[in-house]
Amino acid sequence: MSHLIHRSLRSDPPLALSGQGIHLRDQDGRAIIDGSGGAAVACLGHGHPRVLEAMRAQMETLCYAHTALFGCESAEALADVLVGHRPGGLSHAYFVSSGSEGNEAALKIARQYFLEIGQPERRHVIARRQSYHGNTLGALAAGGNAMRRAPYAPLLSDAFSHVSACYPYRGRAEGESDADYVARLAAELEAEFRRLGPGTVIAFLAETMVGATLGCVTALPGYFQAMREICDRHGALLILDEVMCGMGRTGTLHAWEQEGVAPDIQVIAKGLGGGYQPIGGILVAEKVVAALRDGSGAFKHGHTYQAHPMACAAALAVQRVIAEEDLLANVTRQGARLEQALTERLGNHAHVGEIRGRGLFWAVELVRDRATKTPFDPALAVHERVRDLAYEEGLACYPMNGTIDGRLGDHAILAPPYTVTAAQVDEIAAKFARAVERAVAG
Ligand code: PLP
């Protein structure tokens, strides 16, 4: 038995011995197609030569220097690439080591912003049910995933409250139009602002496209514009968590580009470094940074490994490859192919409730009864069956349970690398469909 605390303490997972392109090789020598890049991380696949070369060069130059005393070239260059052109008014970057740390930094800089501009009474954050923002205690408190929150509830701050996510498949009422559903969600957010006292809210925090917990749910047209308008009216910030859906996953570098809004603070991680190094970050609007600069002069936060030279060098190389090889065009092209392949194979399946996604970020929600949308009995652990049967087929995918309320519901996510080919998309869809069919059979 291993001395590592694995995700399960009852069985050890197979070792991944190596990775090349879209394949991982396990300890039995099997080549597994990495159809989800782990948790939508490996956006360039494994062993990309340009990223390895950049990491090697950085390693031989500088591995670490503390940010209390030094900046470093790779972090400066990465910030230039990400916000030098001020996308959506975002002008500064702050790099950490994970998505959770990114959300912690976002929450803290948002709170500090209001201290700096003389609004210390702002102390609440409104987030959404069935969202996931990370597992550190602040990010977990922000998240609305009941299953992950429950054991730690006594440790979670009550600064956070939650409104409904935009989840048309289950949230839109019978006969309700998209516009009416969006209006209802806007009214719910407005009511929450009023309940808390509008001048006490720091921010509304949401995943632009809900990833792990709901399974690739895009918002309806007009939804984020309505949320932005409410935040603006009440002087609160809009924080978009694009840890999973950002950095090209949906076909644009930022998922918010397709929603007609820009956030005041954006959280990024997985596709930033593609798994080559642990890295996350926040992109921050000029007005927030200016308030700190003109006020106390410093963001009252910090980590030993922030803006780590190796992590930033790897992420810089990943971002350069994405831009220079025009990979976002491939995300859109192959994403359309993946949608079509999944629809052809699973669109009419009795246990497939919905196939949804955008770019190279797709999920299938599984149901016991398609007409009534009744989920499977959680005891059947259908999501685990999909994972195990997909692995048998030679495919790694990312299934999850608790889709509906943290307990009920199953879905599985596919998130292939931006470099995926048409033939690989077809192979992924075929293996995935077989796994789903077997998982729900009898
Ligand atoms: N936010 C979102 C939207 C995520 O999907 C995740 C991880 O899945 C996180 C935050 C937490 O990121 P990490 O696991 O790197 O801490």
How are the SSEs placed, and which strands pair?
Layout: E1 16-20, E2 23-26, E3 31-34, H1 37-40, H2 49-61, H3 73-83, E4 90-96, H4 99-116, E5 124-128, H5 137-142, H6 146-149, E6 160-163, H7 168-171, H8 178-196, E7 201-207, E8 209-210, E9 217-218, H9 223-233, E10 237-242, E11 265-268, H10 270-273, E12 280-285, H11 286-294, H12 309-324, H13 327-346, E13 352-358, E14 361-366, H14 382-393, E15 395-396, E16 398-401, E17 410-414, H15 422-440
Parallel strand pairs: 3-15, 5-6, 5-7, 7-10, 10-11
Antiparallel strand pairs: 1-2, 2-3, 4-12, 8-9, 11-12, 13-14, 14-17, 16-17
Helix pairs in contact: 2-12, 3-12, 4-11, 8-9, 13-15, 14-15
Bound molecules: pyridoxal-5'-phosphate.
Pyridoxal-5'-phosphate (PLP) is lined by residues 39, 98-100, 103, 132-134, 207, 211-212, 241, 243-244, 269, 280.
What does this structure look like?
The chain is an alpha/beta fold and 442 residues long. It contains 15 helices and 17 strands. The two termini are 34 Å apart. It has a seven-stranded mixed beta sheet with strand order 4-12-11-10-7-5-6, sandwiched between helices. Strands 1-2-3-15 form a four-stranded mixed beta sheet. Strands 13-14-17-16 form a four-stranded antiparallel beta sheet. It has helices at 37-40, 49-61, 73-83, 99-116, 137-142, 146-149, 168-171, 178-196, 223-233, 270-273, 286-294, 309-324, 327-346, 382-393, 422-440, and strands at 16-20, 23-26, 31-34, 90-96, 124-128, 160-163, 201-207, 209-210, 217-218, 237-242, 265-268, 280-285, 352-358, 361-366, 395-396, 398-401, 410-414. It is globular, with a radius of gyration of 21 Å. 53% of the residues are buried. It folds into two domains: 51-324, Type I PLP-dependent aspartate aminotransferase-like (Major domain) (Aspartate Aminotransferase, domain 2), CATH 3.40.640.10; 326-440, Aspartate Aminotransferase, domain 1, CATH 3.90.1150.10. The structure holds pyridoxal-5'-phosphate (PLP). The site of pyridoxal-5'-phosphate has 16 residues, from α4.
